[in-house]
Each structure stands twice: as structure tokens, then as C-alpha cells.
Specification:
Elements: H1 2-28, H2 48-58, E1 62-66, H3 72-83, H4 85-94, E2 96-100, E3 118-122, H5 148-165
Amino acid sequence: VMLHSALALFLLLITVSSSLAIAIRKEKRPAQTLSRGWGDDITWVQTYEEGLFHAQKSNKPLMVIHHLEDCQYCQALKKVFAQNEEIQEMAQNNFIMLNLMHETTDKNLSPDGQYVPRIMFVDPSLTVRADITGRYSNRLYTYEPQDLPLLIENMKRALRLIQSEL
């Protein structure tokens, strides 16, 4: 009987510890909710302040995507953004990435108004690069799905600006 209860206790401990290990493992790699559909393999920062900190520390530009869940233009852009390998690869390796569904207190992030979708670049010296624009004169920082080549070019431009400043 003693052996039987010791065995039962042992099995119970193994079950509890393996469930705990599974729970801990799950905890360690959080579900990528910060991507909000923009790219699950990208490491996303949670706040603008965190983005600025990492941009400065890593000497990478910060890319800030302003969007809203119920905006059809945002959804359309998000879909092609998430499917584009070149953008995803650059975003993963060369940028600090932030997507926001609310405005920040930094007025420099909305030089021509608060609209979505809006993509801004901030260099590692923490300067908002208002000079990196899309193709629409009435909304300088918006991109449509067919503007991906321009967005890719602007991402490369943001990277070149850093290289030239080193």
C-alpha cells in the first residue's frame, strides 16, 4: 500500500510539473498579438516610448504604422504588407516596428493631420523623418496597396539615411 501511494504521488507530481512546464513554455513565447495582423514574425514594440528607446539603442529606424481595426484602407494595406516578403524581411531585421491604434502625444507624428493608415519613420537620433512621404499630396504619409513599391523604397531610404549619418 505504501509503495502504491508513493507511486500515485509520484505520477501526480509528474503530471503537475509537466502541465506547469507547458504553462511556463506558453508564457515564455507570448502569442504575437502586438502584430495585429501586420506580420507575426516581426518583433513589435508595444509603445512609442519603447520604440524610441530601441531605435536609439540599436541604431535602427523606427517605423510607426497608425491604423484602425474598422478602417477598410488599413485592412487592405495590412493584407499586402503582411504578405510581402521583402517588407517583412526588412521589418524583421532592419527596423524597430510599432503599429498603433491610437495617437501619441508626439505632434511630430501627425505633421499633416491624424488620419489612417499613416506610416512615419523616426531615425535613431529620434528625429521624425517628415521628409519620407508617400505619393498623395493631401495625405503625405498614407499608402495604398498599390503603393508597396514606394513603401519599400521609403524603407530603404530610411536605412540609407542612417548609413550616411554614421
